[in-house]
Request: fold
Amino acid sequence: MFSVSSLRQWLRETPDLMLSLFRHVEKAHGPDALQYRGGPAAAKLRKTAGVRMWVTRAPERLLLNVCGCGMVMAESRLCELGYEDQIQDPDLEQLTRMLKDLPPDLAQLMLHGLSLFSDAPAHRFAHGHAEELLEAALSDAAPLAEADYERLSCANRVQEDADEAARPEPDGTTAVPREEHGSEVVVEPDADGIELETVRLNEAGAALAGRLDAFAAAVRDGRVADGRELLRDTVSWVRERRALAKAFAAAGAEGEWADDQGWSSAQTLVERLREEQRRQQETDRKTRETEQALDELRTMFDMVTNDLVRENVRGQIAEFEQRLRDLRGDASATGAVRPADVRAGAPGGGTETGTGSGPESGPEPQPVGASAEGAPETPRPEAAHGDGAEAPSVTAEEAGPVLREEAPGPVTRTEPEETPDGLRDREAAHAEESVSGGGTVTTAGTGGPAQVREASRPETAQPAGPSTGAPAEKAPPATRTPAAVPVPRRSADPRGTSTDESPAPAVPAVSDVWAGTPSPVEVLVAEGRPAEAYWLSRAAGAPAHRTLALAFADAAFHTSPARASDLQVQAEELLDALDEGHPWDDDRDAYLVLLTAAIRSGLSARWASSFLTAFTSMPGVPEPWASVMDELVHAVRQSTEIQPGDLGKPAATPVTDRREEIGDRARQLALDLPLRTIKLQRGTIVLQTLAAPDGRLGRTLKLIQGWAEGRIEAEELAKEMEEHYKRSDAADRIIDTTDRAKRTPKQSKNDIHSAAREQLRAHIKTVRDLLTTALRIASSLRPSGGRDIGRDLMRAIADARQAEPLPGVGGALLALLLRWLDGSYAPEPRDTGFRPSAEGLLHLPELRWHVHEEQDEPDLEHPDALGALLGLLGPAAPAVALRCHRDAGDLHLADRLLERLEHGRIVGAAVPAAELAEWRQRIADAAVTWGRKCAEEHRSAQLLLAQIRVQNLLKPEEEHGFTARLLDLEGDDHGDRFGERFRAIAAVGRDLRDLEQQQTAKLYRQLDAAHLPEAEYGRIHRLLDRGKTVAAEELLSFARRGGALPAPAEPAGEELSRFLTGVARPEAPQSTRRGVGARWWAQHYAEDEPLVQNALSGLGAWQELIGERDQRKIRGLVMSVLRLLGLTVLEANVEEARYGVTRLSVRADITESTPGYVAALGSQARRMYKVVVIADELRGEGPLRHLPESAIGANLILYLQPLGTEGRRRLALASRNRGQQALVVDPAVVGWVAARAPRSFRATQRVTLPWTGYTPYTPHVAGLVPPEVFKGRAEEMREILRPDGSIFLFGGRQLGKSSLLRQAVEVFQKAAPDRHIAVYMDLLKADIGHAEPPEGIWRVLLAELKRRGVIGTNVSDRAVDVDVIADAVQQWIEAEPGRRVLLLADEADAFLTADAQAVYTGGGQSTFRTVKRLQRLMETTGRSFKVVFAGLHQVQRFNHLTNVVTAHGGPGILVGPLKPQAAVGLVEEPLAAVGLTFETPDLVWHILGVTNYQANLVQIFCDHLVAYMQQRAMPADGRHAPITWDDVQAVANLERVRELIAERLRYTINLEDRYRVLTLLVALRSLEHGYTHASRPSELLEAAHEIWDEGFPLNSERQLTIFLDEMVGLGLLIRVPGEERAYAMRSPNVVNMLGTRNELQSELNDTEFDLPYDYNPHAARRSIGTSGGVQRMSPLTEGQFGDMLAHPTRTALVPCTRALGDDHVERGLRLYGSGYGLDVISVGPGDNLTEAITANSRRKGSRILFVDLRGRNAEQVGEAAERLVKHTGGTTHDADATPGTPRRYAVILCSPDATAEAEKTGAGLVLPQRWTVDGVRAWPESPFGSPQERRGLIESTGGWPGLVETAMHNVRSGMRQKEVLQGLRELWGTPDAATAHLKAAGFTPADVSRLTAWAQFYSDEEYADGKAAMTPGDIAAAFFDSGDDDPLEAAEHLLKRLDGLAVLDPNKPGGVRLDPVTFRALKTIGPAQ
Reply:
C-alpha cells in the first residue's frame, strides 16, 4: 500500500506539513540539508510551489530522510502525550491509539515511515492492518502549532556535524554557506537572488577598483596611503565573490563561475538559471494539465461499459500516469498509488498478486479467483517486490544518517508496473460484465483463447483480486459481448526498457475490428458514422476491399443527386483497379456494405452501376432482409426517384427522360469542347482535333446522342468503351496518337508536358464518364414486369423492421439505409471526394495527425493509432483532445474541434459556452507561445545556416535548398500549423547540424594529424570545442603553412571599451586654462610597457602645443602630432590664427597601406586635410563650431582639453545632421595612439569616429567604390591580373564589376609603378560601339598611352593605323623585362555587339576585327599586353560562343554576390569603426539574407542602419547602444530601404524584358508553390508565351534555355540539379524584395514588354561629359550630325534655345568630328566672320567652322549663311564629288526665329528636339527600363534635355524614381521656376500673355485626356481680332513659331498640344498674370 512513490505523491498534496518540516530541518540541520542538484533554491522552499517542486524532483534518499525526521518528531510528540513506554514495542491497539492522538498529517507521515523502515517499531502492523491504521491516522486530532514543530527535536535521529556545513553532497552539489558571525553573506541560490547579488557585487567591485587605482597612483607617486580598510574590503570582496560562485553551483547552473571568468560569464550563468526556471515552470504547468486530464480519463473509465473502450481508456490512463511520473522526475518508479485512495482507505490499494506491466510480464491467463500454485493468499511483508506490490522495507541503518549522508549504494527498489491508479476497484466492479457465458474470447495479452476474458487490468492477463486474495464471484453471462481487440501499444517505458526480466511476447500488428457481436466497426456504422468506421478499419489493417467499401458507403450517404453519377463512375474505376482477384466472394459482410452503398448512390443518380446490374441475390440473407435488398436493387434499376421521408411515393423516371438528359449533356459537350483552349498551343490543337466531329471525342459524343435518340443500340456504346476507353492508359494513348498527327518535327522531340496533359486527360475523362453513365443506364432499363415498386418496397421494409437485425457491418449499413429512406437519418451532403473526411476524429486524444495530399489525416503508421481510434466507441473526451492538439502545436485542429463542439457535432460532448470561450482563449494564448517557439527555432536555424555558409560547406544548390526551406517556414501565414512548422524547422536544423558535425569531425582529424605544439594544439582544440569552426580552420591553415598562429582577435567593441575606461578614470587629469598633456593616458594605456620613440616625440609635440602662440612653431608641432596620429605631412600652411584657435591647411599621406574606414578621410580626401588646433575649453556645441562652412571634407580638430565621457556624448549630439564633420583628437586619443599604435591612422579613427557623423558607407557611387569598403574579390582580382587569366568578366548590374576593375588598376600599378601600365576605359561613356565604331578603342588607347609615356608624343592622334599603335606597344614592352600593359575595357556589351557585325573585305567576310587585333597583340607580347572585356549579358554571350574568336578568351570571370566572409567584413568592420556593435552575431546574417550578399545592397542597408543608430540617444557611458534585432527589423522595414534594394535588384532584371518576364514567372511560382519549387523550361515557355508571344515563340525552348543559363551567370537564377533542367531563384530572399504576389502578378499582366533595343542613330545621343556632376548628352542625335555633314551644301543651320541645350551643341560637334578626323574652328558672336573664313581657307585638311550667331536677327543670319555656303564650296549638286577630298564644313548656331533668310541659301536645317520615349530607350544604361517608366519620365520632364539629365543623375545616385519624378512635377508649381523655363524655351512676353490665358481654359485632367488641343481656328478665335488682316494666318504663324521652339507635342485625339512642362509652367504663372 505504501511506497516511496505514494509517499512522494502524498507529500505533494500536503504542502503545509512540508513547509513546517522544512523550517524545522533548516533550523536544526541547516539549509544545505535539503539541497540536491537541480533542486529549487532555499528561498523557494518557503513557498508552496517550491515545496511541490522539491518533492517532485527530490531523490529517494532525501524523501526517506525527511520521512525519518518526521517519524522521530512524531515519537517526541507521543512521548509528550504519555506514550513513552509504549513507543518501542506497541501492540496493534496501542499503535491505533497513538495514531488517533497525533495530528492527521503527522500520523500519516508516521504510518508511511513504519511501512518503509523495516526496523521501525510496529513495522509488522503497517502492512497487515494498513486499512485499519489508515482510518486511525485520519482521525480529527488537534493539529500542531508552528512552535510545536520548532520545539520538537529529531536529535536522536540526526548526528549533526557542523564541520560538514559546506561539504559536497553525494550528487555533486555544494551547499551555500549560511551566514555565521557576519563572515559570510547569504545568497539566495535562485536566479533572482543571484542576479541581485551579481549586480551588487559588480558595483562594489567597480568602486573597489577605483580605490585600488587611487592607492596604486599614490604608491607610484611615492605617497603613503592608508590601505588597511582597502585590504580588508578587498578580502571581503573576494570572499563574497566566491560565495556567489558557490551560489551558482548550488542553484544548479550549467557550468561554474571560475576565478578567471568575468561578469559576462556570470550574466550567462544567470540567463541559464532563468532558462532552467522557465523550463521548470513549464514542467509544472504540464504536470497540472496532465493531472487534470488524468482525472477526466478516470471519470470516463467509471462511465464506460464497453470493454474495447475500457481497454483503450485504460491504456491512455497508463500513458498519462507515465507522463506524470516523467514530469515529476520519478523515472525509477513504475507505478504509483493515488493519495486519494490511501486517504479513503482503499483496501489493498496497490497490493496485487502478479507483476509486470501488461502482456510483457504477465503469466498465462487463469480463471477468476484462481491463484498461483503455492502462493499465499495474503501478501508477505518480506516478499520480493517482483511478486507483489508491497513497498520496500528499509532499515534506519540502511537509510543512513537522516538528511546528511547517503548509504554506500543506492537503495534497490523494484516496484511493479501497477495498473492505472484507482482502477482496480472500478475494474472489479465491471468484471462480471466482461465475462461471457461459457464462450471463449481473445485476451489482449496473448491473443489466444481463454476461459474468461480478464477485464480488470489494462495491460495484464493476470486476474485482479482484493488484497486478501479471496476469489471474485462469477457473473451471469452477458447476452452480447463485443470481441476484444488486441491493441498494439508502445512500451510504457519511454526508453524501451522493461522492469521485468521476462521477454515481451510479440504484439499483434493487425486487429479484426469487423469481428465480434457487435464489432467496433458495426457499432460505428449503426450510429451513422461510416467515415469513422473507415479510419478505424484502416488503422486495424483491414483488407483494402473492406476500406474501399466503407469509403464508398460514406461518400454515397453524403452525396447529392448532382454528384451521384460522378461518384458511381469513380467507384467503378476504383473497384476495377482493386487487383485482388474476387475479394467480395469470400467476404459477405464487405459485399453487403458495397451493395448497400451502390443502392444508396444509385437512388440519387437514378441509374444502376455495374455492381447492381450484375446482382441476382445474396445467399444466406434471411427474409425479409433479402426482399428488402431485391426491391431496392429493382428500384434503382428502374431509375426510381425516392425522396427521404417520402417513401410511399416513389416515382420511376421514364426511360426517355433519362436518355434525353444524357443526350443533352453530350450535345452540350460537343459544342463546348471545340471552343475550349489550353495554355500550351500544342495542347489546344490536340483538344480541337479530338473534339472535331471526326475526332475521337467528337465521334464518342455523336454515338451517345444517337443512343439517346434511339438510333443506336447500347452495344455500339459498349464497343466504343471497349476499343478506346477501357485501358488504364487510354487517355494518354488518345493524346499521343492525336498529337503525333499534328506536331511539327521540332515538337516531336518532346511529349506534351504534364500541365497541358492533365488538362487534356480531364477533358477525355469527362467524355468517358458520360459514356459510362450512358452504358449503366442502358443496362438498368429493364421492364418492371408489372410490379408496384412503391407497395412492394414498403411491405418489405415493414417486415424487416419487425425481424431480427441483420448482424454484421453490412447489416448495420442496410439498417442505416432504411433510416435514410424514412428520413430519420439525414446527413448533410458534402463534396469531400471519395476519401472519407477525418473531421469526426478530432476529439480523440493521443491520435497523431499528419498531412496527406494537402489534407489533415490521422497518422495510421503510428503504433498508438488503433488504440486512439478505439476511443470512438466510448464517451468523447474533447478537453483531453484539445489539450493534446495544443501541446502538439496543432492549433488548427484545435480550432476545428472547437467549431464542431460549438455546433454540437460531437455526440455526448455538450460543452458550456463559457468553457468553450475559455478554451478559445487558451488556444489563442498557445498560438502566441508556439509562434514564439517557432520564431526562436527558425532564428536558430538561420544562424546555423549562416555559420555553415561561412565554412563553404554548401554547394549553391544546397544553399538554395536550405534557404528556400527556411523561407517557406518563415512568417505567420501557416494557418496555426505550429507543430508541423516547428518540426520542419527542427528538421532543417538537424540537417545543418549534421553538416557542421561532419565538418567539425574533419577538423578534429586534421588537427590531430598536424602534430602541433601543445599550446597551439590546445588553442585550436578549444575553438572546436566551442563550435568556432571558421576560426579553427583559419588557424589550421596557418599551421599547415608552417607559420606561427596569429594573436587572438579582439572582440568587436572591446578596444573601445578599454579606451573609454581610461577616459572615465576619476584620477585622470582635468581641464586647465591652456590645455592638458597626454602622458598620463599614454602611461595608463601602455600598462607598464615602454613607449617607442615615435610615441615620445608625438607626446612631446602635443605638450609643447600647450600655450604656444608662434604660428611657425604651431605648424611644426602639428606636423609632429599628425605624424603620431598616422599622417605624413607633405605641406602645411596656417590659414588663420587667433587667440586659442589656429586653422591649417595640410597636404598629407596616410602612413599605412591598409585603407581606413571612412572614404571622406582617406581616398576621397585627395591628401588634403583641414586641421584646427583649439586650446580653450569649450562648452555647448563644442569644438565643431570652429569649423568653417566650407570645411565639408576631411577635418581634424586637435583639442588640447580632455573631452571626458560627457564631452564625447555632447560631441556626438552636435554631429547629428551637420554638414561639417571632424575627428576630434583630445589628450586621451593621443595617449591611446602613442601607447597602442603609433602612426596608425586606423587606430586614431577607431577611437574618434564613434562620436562623429561620418558614415563609412558609400552606396550611391556606382563603379567608384572607395577602397575603404571594397571587400573580397581576391580570386577575381587574381584572374584579372594574371597574364594567362580570362579576358572576359561579366555579372549583373551593381554587383561591383567596375569597382573591381578600378581596384585592379591600383593594385596592378602599385606592384611595379615603373613597369606596369593599367588603362581603365569606359567604352559606354566613350560611345564606342554606339556612336563610335569598335576600332575607336585604339584611338582612346593611343591617347592614354601617350599620356603615360608608352607611345611618343610625335605619333599623331588622328587617323593612325592600328598596326602602328600595336607595334609601339610591343616595342615598349620588349624594351625592358617585366613591362606589362593591362587594358580594362568596361561596359563592353555594345562594343562586342558592334564588332561582331560582318565586314566585307577583299578576302570575304570578317567579324570581330578589333578583338582579333587585340588578341594578336596579346600573343605577340606573350600576354605582357592583356585586355579584359567587362560587361553584362552580351559579354557573357560572346564568351560562351564556341564558333567565334571570343571563345578563346578562356572561361569567363563571374562577378556575383560576395563570399560570406567578405560580406561579414563589409557589415561588421565599418560599423565597429563608428562604434556600432551587434547584440548577437546572427543579426549580421539576417542583414546578409535581406541583401542577398550583394555589396551594393549591403551598403544601402548599413548606410541607413548607421544613420538610424546615430540618431538614437547615446547612453551615459559615452558609447552607442548595441544594435538589436528590433533595430535591424526597423531598418529593414523602412520603405525607402526596401524600394532602393528592390530597384537595385531590378537593374539586372531589366537588362532585357525577357529576363524580366522569366524572373517574375519564377518568383511567382516560388510564392505559389514554395521556395523549394523549381521550374522547367517547357513550363516557363508556355507561361511566358501566354504573356508575351512576340518575345517567347513556342518553338524557342532551346533559346529560352540559353536565356535561363545567362540569368544563372548574372546571379539571378540557380540551376537545380537533377535529371531534368530546372531553375529557381538564386536567393529566395530576392523574391520578397521584388514585391508581393499581387504586385508581381500585376506587373506581369500590365507591363508592355519590348524586344531588345537595336542601335538607332536617329535616336541615340552621345555623352559630352559632366557638368555640375550631371552627365550631359548631346542636343543632337548621331543621325543629325551625320545628316549635317552629308548635306550637299556642307553648311547647316542649328536653331536652338537654352532649354534645348544650345550651350552643348559645340561640345557634341567636336566629339563627333574628332571621330572622323575633323577639326572644329569656333567663331564666336564677337569674332569677325570674314577673317575666320579667310584663315580657314589657308588651312589644310577637312575642318568645320562652328559659327555662333545666337541673338542675331534673321537678316544677319541669312547673310552669314550665304557667305558660308560659298566658303564650303558645296552645292546642291555636289553628290558626285571625289571621295577623300579635304572638305570644309560650316555649322551655324542661331535662334529659332532667325532661320527664314538663311534657309533660302540652300543650307541644311537641323532641328534639335526634346527627348522622346524611344530616345530615352537609346540612353546607355538607362535606369528607366520599361515603357511605363520611360513614359513617366517624359510626362514629368517634357523631354527637356536638362530635366531628363537631372532625373537620370538623381536616380543613378540612389534616389527612387517616384521621388525624382514627383519632385520635378512639383518644381513647376513655383512661379520662379515656371518663368525661368518659359524664358529658356524662347517665349516672348507676348507669347506668355497669350498662352497663359490659353492654359487656364483647361484643367490638368482635361490636358491628360487630350482635350487641350491647339488648332489654328481655336487660336485665331481666342487671341486675334476679326479686324486683323488674316487672324487664321496669324494663328498659323504662332503655331509654326511654337513648333520651331519644340514646345508642341502630337495630341492623341488629333492636332497638337503644349508639352506637359510648358503647360504646367503656364498654369502656374497664370494667376499671377
Residues 156-185, 331-510, 1442-1447, 1771-1779 have pLDDT under 50 and may be disordered. The longest strand covers residues 1127-1138. The CA atoms of residues 351 and 390 lie 6 Å apart.
